[in-house]
TrEMBL record:
Signal peptide: 1-24
Keyword annotations of the record: Membrane, Signal, Transmembrane, Transmembrane helix
Region feature Disordered, mapped onto this chain: 307-345
Transmembrane segments: 235-256
Name by which UniProt lists this protein: Uncharacterized protein
Organism this protein belongs to: Apiotrichum porosum
Length: 372
């Protein structure tokens, strides 16, 4: 019980802190006296939440305009239902209650709200990313950023606090002035406009450089958006690397294709050799059939067997020249395993045999054992 009491006190204190820091919603009470700029971030702060503002009747009301296309706090609201954007010649103040007309030069403006100042007719001559249409808000007053070299200028320095990765707090300054920021900057000591410096020149602030980048070594560096410019030898090296890569790929593909072609050639040779062996076997069987059918009736089995291996001249192991039982070549009649490789002896006989088979009439059932 004693251990739970400190935990309960801590939870109660945390709940009180959350209630104190909570923002009022629509219709709830607020005080316009609490409208102010945050001392650390210089952002506008009030008693109301991100979708309302503190009205004159001391209650939070729905905002009547917005500054951004997609404002914060409206994640659950349809785009068509967002507060309207202000048109040309108008601006939405920090309170975001309703659109107001832009102020003329010398008129009031809110902190760094350059868009609240009306531009001049020739604003394109000195407009830059450091101002809005050539107008700038300095010390809550509207100016045109058109002052040139040697003329007096106005400086507005704003200090911010930042935190490093090691949680060390540091301060940095943003300096703004009404010089023509395309070519000049306002010197903080003499308060006159001076020409901006080129890369490598000595500097003490970013605004002194055309690149808006004063490096830690005190010289103007390259701009953040400056494109890289490779040297000539880098182009040569990259070009050679590309050529070598292309040649290497082509050579590799050629060797790979040659290996596939050789493997395919071996497969085709094996296939053709098998087909030739099958055909030779069929031719041998066909010649044997013709030889047996041409024997006279009553021929002994030994004599019939001998006729299968008799050459065209009648010379054989068992038959004499007078018998003439076969007219085929001996090489063609041999079985495939006894025949010479690459022999063309089957060519003529096979063609004649195939023609005879196509032209001959169908034989009867007893033709196999009957002489013709």
């Amino acid at each position: 019980m004693v251990l739970l009491r400190p935990l309960a006190l801590f939870t109660f204190a945390a709940s009180l802190a959350s209630v104190a820091s909570a923002k009022a919603a629509f219709g709830e009470a607020c005080d316009q006296a609490n409208n102010h700029l945050d001392s650390d971030t210089w952002t506008f702060t009030s008693d109301c939440d991100q979708t309302t503002y503190c009205d004159a009747n001391a209650t939070c009301a729905h905002r009547g305009c917005r500054r951004d296309t997609y404002p914060v706090g409206y994640s659950d609201v349809a785009f068509a239902d967002l507060p309207p954007l202000c048109g040309e010649g108008l601006f939405c103040p920090d309170e975001m209650d309703h659109c107001l007309s832009q102020n003329q030069i010398g008129g009031p403006c809110q902190k760094d709200r350059d868009d609240q100042c009306a531009p001049s007719s020739n604003y394109k001559d000195y407009a830059s990313y450091l101002n809005v249409n050539g107008s700038i808000c300095l010390s809550f007053t509207c100016y045109w950023a058109n002052v040139t070299a040697g003329q007096p200028c106005i400086v507005d320095n704003t200090y911010y606090e930042g935190t490093s990765d090691s949680n060390v707090t540091f301060a940095y300054m943003v300096s703004r002035d009404n010089c023509n920021s395309q070519y000049f900057y306002c010197d903080g000591t003499e308060l006159v406009c001076m020409s901006k410096k080129h890369r490598g020149d000595a500097c003490s602030a970013d605004k002194e450089c055309f690149s808006f980048n004063c490096q830690e070594n005190g010289t103007c560096g390259k701009a953040a958006d400056e494109p890289l410019k490779p040297k000539a030898w880098e182009y040569v090296v990259i070009g050679l690397a590309i050529v070598i890569l292309i040649v290497g790929v082509m050579v590799g593909l050629w060797f790979l294709h040659r290996r596939w072609r050789e493997e395919n050639q071996v497969k085709l040779e094996q296939y053709y050799n098998e087909q030739i062996a099958y055909r030779q076997s069929i031719m041998s069987m066909s010649h044997a059939k013709n030889s047996l059918l041409s024997l006279p009736q009553g021929t002994s089995p030994d004599l019939a067997r001998a006729s299968l291996y008799t050459d065209e001249s009648g010379n054989g192991n068992h038959a004499g020249p007078s018998q003439g039982f076969s007219t085929a070549r001996s090489d063609a009649l041999l079985p495939p395993n006894m025949r010479r490789e690459g022999s063309n002896s089957f060519t003529d006989d096979s063609e004649v045999l195939l023609m005879n088979q196509h032209n001959a009439p169908a034989a009867g059932p007893g033709a196999r054992f009957r002489g013709n």
